[in-house]
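Below sits my pick:
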Amino acid sequence: MSKPEESVHVPDDPGAIKQAGWLGRWINRIGIVFAVGIVLSMFILMNEVILRYIFNAPTIWAHETTIFLCGMAFIYGGLYCTARNSHIRVVLIYDVIPPRIRRIFDIVISVVCAAASAMFAWAAYTMVLRAAFRPDGSIRLERSGSAWDPVFPGAIKIFLLIIMTVMAVQFIILAYNYARGRS
């Protein structure tokens, strides 16, 4: 008699951890936009290779656009990993301590990361002041200076400010929920 085939179960995507709250769920859902940006970058680069090496007609926008799209995805990736608790960490001590002490570690780590994210947000804010405003106060985004000259440098600095601010808030939510013992 033949043995029935075992079905292979692929676990569902866990998404954001419960301690991340509504903000974490929102961050997790938005992540697909930046994943699509990476795929779009690939198509842009494939297009550029074909245009450059087959038709000898390169574009002036492909390189800067792919750098911008990938940069946005990498910046968002830090926030995405925070909401999903999938960031890289050294677990030598963390994995062997009892759950009560691990919870204290989670609170302290979240508070320290919130402070660090807030400091990076402040640094990004000082960059945005120079990249988005002229000395007279009028708005003008920093440009790349290339032949195409897009506003990508200014836009990426604004995006970094937004993401670091949201990341600080996400870490505060995590610390609060860890302190309350929410699982």
Notes: The chain has one domain: 18-87+97-141+149-180. The radius of gyration is 22 Å. The helical segments are 21-53, 62-84, 99-132, 152-180.
